[in-house]
Amino acid sequence: MSARLTPSRLSDAAFSRRGLLTGAVGVTSLAALSACGGSSTAPQGGSVPSASAGGTAYTGPKVTVSFWCGWTGADGDVAKKMINEFNAATPNITVNMNVMQWADFFTKLPAAVSTSSGPDVAVMHIDDIPTQAAQQVIVPIDEIATALNLQSSDFAPAVWNGGMYNGKRYGIPIDVHDLGLYVNQSVMEKAGLDPTKPPTDENSYMDALDKIKSKAGIQGSWVSPFQFTGGFMFQSLLWQFGGDLYDSSTTNATWNSDAGTKALTWMVGLISKGYSPKNVAQDADYIALKNAKNAFNWQGIWQVNDATTLSTTKITTARLPKIGTQRGVWGNSHQFVLPKTTGQDQNTALAARYFINWFTQHESEWATSAKVPASNKLAQSSDFTKLTKLQSFAADVPDVHFPPAVAGIGDATAKLYDAIQAAVLGKQSVDQALSTSAQAATKVLADNKKKYGA
Q1: What is the pLDDT of residues 217-274, one digit of tens each?
Q2: One fold for both 7-174+333-361 and 179-331+406-452?
Q3: For 264-303, what is each residue's pLDDT tens digit?
Q4: Cα-Cα end-to-end distance for the chain
Q5: Alpha-carbon radius of gyration of the chain
Q6: Strands 121-125, 63-69: parallel, antiparallel or unpaired by DSSP?
Q7: What would the pLDDT profile of 323-368 be if each residue is shown by its tens digit?
Q8: Which CATH architecture has domain 7-174+333-361?
Q9: Closest alpha carbon to 124 in 94, 149, 100, 93
Q10: In 10 A of CB 433, how many CB atoms?
Q11: Sign of the C-alpha dihedral computed for residues 311, 317, 323 and 328 taken in this order
Q12: Do 341 and 142 form a contact (C-beta atoms < 8 A)?
């Protein structure tokens, strides 16, 4: 299995690009696994531990639960705090959290599972679930969803369906982290615009950019050629113009459609019209926003806690403007999964399930790490609604799209980011970049069906 950072794994790397093992709650160590290579074959042996209680309660003896995740940034600090609270409130369960960069996570997890030394519970992104399920690294957890009485109506459809693979549930939703519009209100004021009324559609967006350019002398909407955040911006626009990444059978990449051409042409147009520099470095769009050299940044929710605490300039958040004919937003979701185990103690299995239940019931606290609770009920709770800077992201959740639940989908989507970079940097025309990359992605899809099964 490749250790390359896939689209989903990078969403947390945006919090902290250190890419290092940052520490752990408890004493469990990953040192013994550090020399293990990745595996593209399914781990042998193992079974799904039976646990009839399914996580609703734990009344057994003292046990230790091993928990792996890739929360290396501010979200890791919040998770550590929550796990300390859980351990204090549940003296018969001690959860040890091991944190590593996502690239290491997806190298070490299959290796650990294949040697029966994997964790009892883990977290991964919604678009990593199909690949790990196909490789039998994680197991179905329908029994937990049933025992916890989770219903599709409790979640946005994309979030609920995203935890499924081949008709079985592999993920319990925790959150949604999506793209939004960051607005430098100081720049808007300088241009004579009402800072409390960010643009909501193409006309108001372009009108604001004209005023910001002419009156404030600022290029107001920087276009990144990188996945962060140009790749996410393109996908949002693709859906807004009525397109999609793949066809219904996930046999062909379809971003070289008329909708894809409109989306990428609009992005490149921001550069040719002078609203963005020609060659924006990684993260330079966001840094410029903070330095009042940029007005609008299509950026992920993960920057909220940083952007809204600045003292030198005023930054707020808003829903993505509707540039196309309908709403569409890039997003992702963390979900709990159960790695495959062999001979796991029944009490440990029950404790791991109870931990999943407890954590998801405390999603409002988890939201302080800059996330939207996956649960509709918790997203509407007073504990979450008081987090005002996150409300625009929550409002966009019904419009969030996820990649299809197909094994290896991240490798296909990676071809799209090559196209965006080529077009935004002027190395290829929009049509050429989209066509070439779609052909390459379609080949990846065909190869993946052979590799993982249809």
Answers
A1: 999 999 999 999 999 999 999 999 999 999 999 999 999 999 999 999 999 999 999 9
A2: yes
A3: 999 999 999 999 999 999 999 999 999 999 999 999 999 9
A4: 19
A5: 22
A6: parallel
A7: 999 999 999 999 999 999 887 789 999 999 999 999 999 999 999 9
A8: 3-Layer(aba) Sandwich (3.40)
A9: 100
A10: 24
A11: positive
A12: no
Q: Are 238 and 263 in contact (CB under 8 A)?
A: yes
d(CA 284, CA 425): 15
* CATH topology classification for 179-331+406-452: D-Maltodextrin-Binding Protein; domain 2 (3.40.190)
State the number of CA atoms in the 13 A half-sphere of 429 facing the CB.
Answer: 4
User: Residue 45: phi, psi to the nearest 5?
Assistant: 80, 180
Torsion of CA 23, 26, 32, 33, to 10 degrees: -60
Angstrom distances, CA of residue 219 to CA of 229, 271, 322, 451: 17, 9, 20, 46
Strand, coil or helix: 299: strand
| Domain boundaries, given as residue ranges, for the chain | 7-174+333-361, 179-331+406-452
* pTM for this entry: 0.89
Nearest to 229 by CA among 278, 180, 185, 158: 180
Q: What is the pLDDT of residues 6-63, one digit of tens each?
A: 444 444 444 433 333 333 333 333 333 232 333 333 343 334 444 445 688 899 999 9
Q: Look up residue 351 and give its amino acid.
A: A
Are 315 and 290 spatial neighbours (Cβ–Cβ below 8 Å)? yes
- Among 401, 397, 412, 404, CA closest to 443: 412
Nearest partner of 28 among 125, 105, 118, judged by Cα:
118
Joined together, the tokens standing for residue 96 give 């040890």
